[in-house]
Specification:
The protein is α+β, with helices and mostly antiparallel strands and 171 residues long. The chain has helices at 17-32, 62-77, 83-105, 110-134, 146-169, and strands spanning 6-8, 14-16, 40-48, 51-59. It is 61% helix and 14% strand. The strands form 2 sheets. It has a two-stranded antiparallel ribbon with strand order 1-2. The protein has a two-stranded antiparallel sheet with strand order 3-4.
Length: 171
């Protein structure tokens, strides 16, 4: 399934999978730039006429938001998963299963598990970025200028020449 498959939106604009992935990585970046905290309510007094009312605001768990966002990126990237990524993913899944089993045996709290899961998802995000690099998702873009595209192609030609030269030097 090529990475350039298209989604059709209600506005009849075409969005590529690549663009969805880029936007989603930006969202993950935005989440990770905030303090990763459990959910909580805050109360704030507000003057209404002659009286005062207390307004309660819910703040969602940013740790879970990050974890869910990384899981969705995993879903988006699985069609492009290579052998290296699948091996790393299997190892991470085994580690998570072991840690969850220990967590249950130790009767850990849900809060403790969310912190553990967050740590595991940060590792998964790193592996997803390595996969994106290996499949060279961002190397060429339909919005690249002709000059940028020519420069990228020239770099590729140089890499191929280096590889050919290395093979000729090896006995």
């Amino acid at each position: 399934m090529p990475m350039e498959d298209e989604f059709i939106t209600l506005q009849k604009e075409k969005v590529t999978i690549k663009e969805v992935i880029i936007l989603h990585i930006k969202k993950i970046s935005d989440i990770s730039c905030k303090e990763l905290t459990p959910s909580f309510f805050s109360k704030k007094p507000i003057k209404i006429g002659d009286g005062v009312a207390i307004v309660e605001t819910y703040h969602p768990d940013t740790r879970l938001a990050y974890s869910n966002a990384v899981d969705f990126l995993l879903d988006l990237m699985m069609p492009k998963a290579d052998k290296t990524f699948k091996e790393a993913l299997n190892l991470m899944n085994d580690t998570e299963a072991e840690q969850f089993k220990e967590h249950k045996e130790n009767k850990g709290t849900q809060n403790d598990w969310v912190w553990t899961k967050l740590s595991l998802r940060r590792t998964l995000f790193g592996q997803l970025i390595l996969l994106i690099d290996r499949i060279r998702l961002f190397d060429a873009s339909p919005v690249m200028s002709d000059e940028d595209l020519e420069e990228l192609m020239a770099l590729e030609d140089e890499k191929e020449l280096e590889i050919d030269n290395d093979h000729e030097k090896t006995p």
